[in-house]
Structures are given as C-alpha cells and as structure tokens.
Amino acid sequence: MSTWHIRPAEHADLVALHPLMAGLQDVERTLHANRSIGAAMAGGHLEYLWQLTTRHDGLLALAVADAQPLGFVVVIIVDEDDGDQHLVPTARRAGIITDLYVEPAARRRGIGAALLASAERHCAARAVSVMRLTTLWANRAARAWYVRRGWQPYELSFEHRVAAAAADDAPERV
After folding, report:
1. Domains of the chain with CATH codes
2. In whole angstroms, what separates CA 147 from the centre of its chain?
3. Element at 61 (helix H, strand E)
C-alpha cells in the first residue's frame, strides 16, 4: 500500500466510507446480537454521523491512500446540562469518539493511532480536556489497544434482556 494521510471528511466521502462502516458493523455483529447487518445500515448511519458532527462541533476524519479511505474516526463534543452537577466542571464537556475503524488490510501501520490523535487534536483545539469512547466488552483486542494508548476504563455498562411480559402476569411487587 502507498503512503497514507489523515484529512477531514467531506460529505461526498460518505459513499466511499460505506464499505468501512459496513465492515465495522459486521465485526461488531459477531460480538453482539443487537447489531444490524452492515450493508443495510451503513449509508443511513454515516449520514446520521455526518449530521451529528455538524450539530456537535465534531469531526469525521479519514485515513486515505490513493484517494481510497483506509479508516475513519468520528468525534463529537458534548456538554452536560447545566443542572447536571454529578461531574466536576472540567468533566462536563467531553469529546466522544463514536466510531473508529481501520480496514483489516491496513492495520498495524499506525493508522488507528493517527486517527485517534486527530480526534484528540480536534478536542484540544476546542478546549476539551476529557475524551471518552465505548467499545463492546467482547472486543478484547480493542480494549487492550486503547489501554496501550493511555486510555483508562471509565464506566462499565451492563445489559439485561427482559422477557416480554403478558398483560395479565402477576402484579409487580414493591
């Protein structure tokens, strides 16, 4: 592969990103049953992310070689509601990485780290001192990769499937 570089995406790039978004989704689908089929959701989800970055001072950045995208990162800036006092003021504004993906053939070349660094620069330029991201618990490789880059576990989410209850089931106990 030729030399690659990182650049901000343009709306016209979304079509070329379809295979990468579908690839990310299909990987996640192997890790959790709640993920849609990649090809079915890629176009709509990319448009959604584009709108999200526009509304939330975000960035969709691409790693590109010979005009072909090799990977991408999406980061948005979020502010906690003024009434939400559970976080210290410096933690109430955060950069949230919603997606990061590098196609398998382009991995182990520093592209993911460069995409992550571009998101960090974007946040730093906006005086954002905290960044967060989530990954599926089953994605051990991603968890280890983030930790090697200095990211620390922050919160742990749990999920529980609830069986549909019939309308006349036993009354709720308090």
Report:
1. 5-148 (3.40.630.30)
2. 16
3. strand 59-65
Task: Round to whole Å and give the CA distance between 136 and 122.
Answer: 24
Give every CB contact of residue 73 below 8 A, 6+ residues apart in sequence. 59, 60, 61, 97, 99, 100, 115, 116, 118, 119
Place of tokens 């006092």: 85
pTM over 0.85: yes
pLDDT in 10s for each residue of the chain, 174 residues: 579 999 999 999 999 999 999 999 999 999 998 999 999 999 999 999 999 999 999 999 999 999 999 999 999 999 887 777 787 877 789 999 999 999 999 999 999 999 999 999 999 999 999 999 999 999 999 999 999 999 999 988 888 888 875 555 555 555
Answer for the pair 60, 73: CB distance below 8 angstroms, yes or no.
yes
CA distance 168 to 172: 11
